[in-house]
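Give me the 3D structure for NADH-quinone oxidoreductase subunit F.
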Amino acid sequence: MNNIIPTEETHPLTWRLRNDRETVWIEEYCKKNGYFSLKKALKTMCPEDVVHLIKESGLKGRGGAGFSTGLKWSLMSKDNSSKIRYLLCNADEMEPGTYKDRFLMENIPHQLIEGMLLSAFALNVSRGYIFLRGEYIKAEYILKKSIQEAINFGFIGSNILNSGFNFELFLHTGAGRYICGEETALINSLEGRRANPRAKPPFPAVFGLWGKPTCVNNVETLSNVPSIVLHGVNWYKKLSKSTDTTGTKLMGFSGKVNNPGVWELPFGTTAREILEDYARGMKSGLFLKSWQPGGAGTDFLIEKHLDLPMDFTSIAKAGSRLGTAIAMAVDNKTNMISLVCNIEKFFSRESCGLCTPCREGLPWIVKILESLEKKEGHKNDVKNLERLCLDLSPGKTFCAHAPGAVEPLQSAIKYFRLEFEAGISIKKLKKCSNILGIQSNEFTSKV
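Predicted structure for NADH-quinone oxidoreductase subunit F (447 residues):
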């Protein structure tokens, strides 16, 4: 990566980065072809053209779900009787270990703003919000300044570039809840309500913010739109090495690697390339024990999966999810029970409490893991954990919080079951075996 010079043709998201890593403000952004796509769209395209272009490009959501962006846009209500529609940028990046959206907002904020302008034009939207994670203080300052710059240059406001297109953009900082990454919880929070997910249908495209048609897209997703509009579908598709997904993606590795970071790479780049060529391998004296492909809420994979292409289908076939594609390396000296317990504490604390399986199941999982960590577990603890994974699986709760929370647990048991079984207390096992009278059925045959 260090020997590769990013260009507009190969690195559409990051080629404008400064060598000193300072923010690219509007004057420099305009000198680097900034807002060219907006001018092209407003002068030569209609909104339907932009929607069709994005659909043909194959752009998929970069927040983790990987849903087709063009298809999502086409689901927006076609009823033009209501002139109020909203575009929301999901910048509530609270996935542990993930920092790609912050990277884009702090370094190239106008790329996101231009992407929102193009998306708003395509969707006939005149008002947008950036819902920003509250802890991103630096990004908040940069985005506020950048929005004002765009207003001063006439890119935000009324009759933009004499096209008749109007757009207002507001920045909203969240109060710090993981669940706000779920789009309907985000909408509730923006309305001033408790951030609980909503029942679907109706979907936000029909009944969203304040009951109006609303589209919610991720920061990185929106940041891809300007280059697609400027350079076209065929160029964008050829960027990828994958047959599954088009374009490039911000990918990275964290953990005890020599060079943790994030890089823009073509879809289809293998995890091994990212770990060894970009993150420069594990630190001295350590080797890779396991890894999560895209955030704390994705299943663990092991060393044999490193040669898989990083795209949505290949990682799913291996039993995990691409997620945010910011991977975490787990070294051989890390206790899997302690690691998973830490992850589950986070998800338990961040549960909104609306669904019983999630509200009660996650704290129960934490208690069992704490017991196993102290070597004080009961004989059936591992089986109970597996049963809880099923009870919190997709379809059992209102949103994807609980299913995501149990993904690291179920995969850790799958690959490192002996570590979990080693947490069962031998003393308790013997004590139970010696009880005469009332005792659990599991020990009856041994008495």
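The beta strands are 86-91, 127-132, 168-173, 214-218, 248-255, 261-266, 288-292, 326-331. Let me know if you want a second pass.
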